[in-house]
Amino acid sequence: VTLLIAFICVRSSVWIDYSAFSYFEVVTICDLIMILAFYLVHLFRFYRVLTCISWPLSIFGFLATFLCLASVWLSYKISCVTQSTDAAV
């Protein structure tokens, strides 16, 4: 749901720099498709047929994605706090 909201926000905003906005469109759509594919594999139990993928190890991929997003958010938060503190001084 969050990726769909992010795509709608990027798509409906005023485009100043085409390349930057198209990059975020592609990223949100690719992530949405990937999550949908994993959901369908789980829903229809295709993981029993697809033995070439180590499904227990795919949990680590989701964990790594979450940690990467947390890192990006914390880096952004730290840089914004630093900039606002520097501007106040």
Automatic annotation (TrEMBL):
Residues 1-89 form the MARVEL domain. Keywords: Membrane, Transmembrane, Transmembrane helix. It is found in: Membrane. It is a multi-pass membrane protein. The chain crosses the membrane at residues 20-41, 53-76. GO terms for cellular component: membrane. The keyword DNA damage does not apply. The keyword Phosphoprotein does not apply. This is CKLF like MARVEL transmembrane domain containing 7.
